[in-house]
Design brief:
The protein has 182 residues and is mostly helical. The protein contains five helices and no strands.
């Protein structure tokens, strides 16, 4: 993650402009959080559906353990679906529980620095605190953008994997019934 904000430009802004920039950055971060909530909710819903299907298929395979005949088309399809759904569940866990999330607030250690108080006026203190706040928000925005991009990519992979897995099962079943069983 690279912070693209030019701190020299921040130093040139007035308090009023810094407050406007801070407000816009906070709105941007809230929008990113809303987008992350949407992708988490979609992933969670898909996860819940797939865990039921996966558990059912595994239950079927376990119930057939005494009569386990690998040549059985139902056993073969069940194994393929278990592998596909297991992979998709793994991807969805990564989407639902991301590695990192940047928060909206700033720790006081980022806002209160020695150089802020080296100047005499309270306006310069306010200006420096706003400047640090905007800088911290920018870091959070960049981090959350990267995080959201990765989560959307993983969710897309999960959906494509389900589709590819179902197509493979369909083709395999068609080949089995039309070619092998004849």
């Amino acid at each position: 993650m690279k912070n693209k904000l030019d701190t020299k430009l921040l130093d040139k802004l007035s308090i009023e402009n810094l407050e406007i920039v801070k407000s816009e950055a906070e709105m941007n971060l809230e929008d990113l959080s809303s987008s992350e909530n949407v992708i988490t909710n979609k992933s969670n819903t898909l996860f819940q559906v797939l865990i039921v299907v996966f558990t059912t298929i595994v239950g079927y395979l376990v119930s057939q353990i005494n009569n386990f005949i690998i040549k059985s088309i139902l056993i073969q399809i069940s194994i393929i679906l278990c592998v596909v759904f297991g992979f998709v569940l793994f991807l969805l866990i990564k989407v639902i529980y991301p590695k990192k999330v940047a928060l909206k607030g700033s720790p006081p250690s980022n806002l209160i620095q020695d150089y802020i108080f080296s100047k005499k006026s309270n306006k310069s203190h306010t200006r420096q605190i706003l400047r640090n706040r905007v800088y911290s928000l920018n870091i959070a925005i960049e981090s959350n953008k990267e995080n959201l991009k990765n989560r959307v990519r993983l969710f897309d992979w999960a959906n494509k994997s389900i589709l590819i897995g179902l197509i493979i099962v369909l083709i395999y079943s068609a080949v089995y019934f039309f070619c092998i069983s004849s």
